[in-house]
Amino acid sequence: MAATPLSQRGAAEIERRILSGTLRPGDRLPTGKELSEMLGVSRSVVRDAVQALVARGLVITRQGSGTVVAETNDSVIGEGLLGMLTRSEVTMGDVVRARATLETQLARRAAVAGGEDDWASMRAALDRMRKGVEEREWAMALEAHVDFHLDLIHACGEPALDMMLKPIEEVIMVSSLPAERGKDTLWEVDGHLPILDALIAGDPDAVEQAMKRHFEYIDTDQYREFRSMPFGRADDIATYREYLVEPWRAAATSGA
To answer: Global pTM?
Structure first.
């Protein structure tokens, strides 16, 4: 078995101290020289180790402040997941169907475990989504749509599940876009109401059926091109990500 590179071992030791709480968010790392002496490796090895931790989002470098432990951030995991899907051979349709499988089962749990605060938050998300569509504020509509689905996950009442699935937010965003920009009817705001009604009623079977109906859109003719588009086609993914991250600036400025 090949020996683990020193830089990886150095990064692993610093990571251990971060994850154990010995080094906390905002703490400044020892200098390169100090780390070199602590870990018994050269400063170049320390430099490579720190760069690896920066890439993973565990530490950040600040001009004049050195390297500090980053705040807890799931965006790196989300970016990693998005990157894996981007480099794969799956299509947009594959991703939406995977979401349907996951969210349908989570909805059954949410119907039993959720409460009034969860339903109020989901209803508020639908109200914002409706307002965004009516006013053609696509960024608002998209954010509210994603919030509705994330609120469903939160309603399961499992904090660990929240943490584990929060990084899929950007995947939800990319796969939640309508097939045509600016077409109000494709947002299907009212299509979310049966899901919420079944959740409020505490009926797992009804919410499962409502979720299945909700995700049937991906197999309609309007979504033929969207569902067959390879998720890993870099130019299209860049377009879709700009479409939402910017947020839909082109649509807003053109009045589309």
So the answer is: 0.69
- 131-167 core/surface letters (b: 16 or more CB in 10 A; e: else): ebbeeebbbbbbbbbbbbbbbbbbbbebeeeeeebeb
Closest CA to 204 of 112, 123, 140: 112
Distance CA 96, CA 145 (A): 14
- Summarised one tens digit per residue, pLDDT across range 84-137 is 887 888 998 999 999 999 999 999 999 999 999 999 999 999 999 999 989 988
CATH superfamily of domain region 76-254 = GntR ligand-binding domain-like (1.20.120.530)
Fold type of domain 6-69: Arc Repressor Mutant, subunit A (1.10.10)
Q: With 0-12 CB in 10 A as exposed, 13-18 as middle and 19+ as buried, what is 189?
A: buried
